Amino acid sequence: AQSVTQLGSHVSVSEGALVLLRCNYSSSVPPYLFWYVQYPNQGLQLLLKYTTGATLVKGINGFEAEFKKSETSFHLTKPSAHMSDAAEYFCAVLLMDSNYQLIWGAGTKLIIKP
Amino acid sequence: DTEVTQTPKHLVMGMTNKKSLKCEQHMGHRAMYWYKQKAKKPPELMFVYSYEKLSINESVPSRFSPECPNSSLLNLHLHALQPEDSALYLCASGGTSYNEQFFGPGTRLTVL
């Protein structure tokens, strides 16, 4: 069975500091992994995805994530936090069935301190 | 056009009302999804239409009824809802060839 674990329901960083949001997955097949961001009272927006190929994936808004098979991880990073990055972040893995369902992590709320 | 649209943006309804939520995409995706999202939680999958075939999450109560008139449109019919059904309802499309799902902005539903 496939699953996703996000470590830390809340992460607080100072503006300009490194952002690190952790995601570990469980999958018996090569995973397809996604990070989504959700701003208050909005839908979800794709930040980046890993399907195959390069393990370091760059996304929008300066975010990137590295797929590490040996660690079953797909952590999200950004070198310098901005106030506008404050949001809820969800990691997800694609369930390999005919419906292309996403299995979601519980989410991490990113708080940016001025 | 990489947008999924949803109407209405907000909906307040009583427990005896019948209402519908609408979703539209013009990206040629053949899979469309309804999700329910409670505050501070990830989205919960309710229904999937994949190549116009419906898959149901069996835990979803029958007071929610999906409809897919064509591959671009997805409706969610609501009847006799309960206050605990108040949530953000998200529509998404995608999933073909293991691509990402594109989400609409959601409908904020309040059941009184």
Describe the structure.
- The complex is a heterodimer of chains A (114) and B (112).
- Chain A contains no helices and eleven strands.
- Chain A has 114 residues and is mostly beta strands.
- In chain A, β4 and β5 (44-50) form a beta hairpin.
- With 112 residues, chain B is mostly beta strands.
- Chain B has strands at 4-7, 10-13, 18-25, 31-37, 44-50, 53-56, 64-70, 73-79, 87-94, 101-103, 107-111.
- The radius of gyration of chain B is 13 Å and the shape is globular.
- Chains A and B meet through β5 and β9 of A and β5, β9 and β10 of B.
The oligomeric state is heterodimer
Taken from the alpha-carbon principal axes, the silhouette of chain A is globular
Strand content of chain B: over 45%
H/E element order of chain A: EEEEEEEEEEE
Number of helices of chain A: 0
Uncertain regions spanning at least 5 consecutive residues of chain B: none
Mean pLDDT across all amino acids of chain B: 91
Offer a concise description of the structure.
Chain A is mainly beta. Chain A has strands at residues 3-7, 10-14, 19-26, 33-38, 44-50, 56-58, 64-68, 73-78, 87-94, 102-104, 108-113.
How do the helices and strands line up, and which of them pair or pack?
The complex is a heterodimer of chains A (114) and B (112).
Chain A: E1 3-7, E2 10-14, E3 19-26, E4 33-38, E5 44-50, E6 56-58, E7 64-68, E8 73-78, E9 87-94, E10 102-104, E11 108-113
Parallel strand pairs in A: 2-11
Antiparallel strand pairs in A: 1-3, 3-8, 4-5, 4-9, 6-7, 7-8, 9-10, 9-11
Chain B: E1 4-7, E2 10-13, E3 18-25, E4 31-37, E5 44-50, E6 53-56, E7 64-70, E8 73-79, E9 87-94, E10 101-103, E11 107-111
Parallel strand pairs in B: 2-11
Antiparallel strand pairs in B: 1-3, 3-8, 4-5, 4-9, 5-6, 7-8, 9-10, 9-11
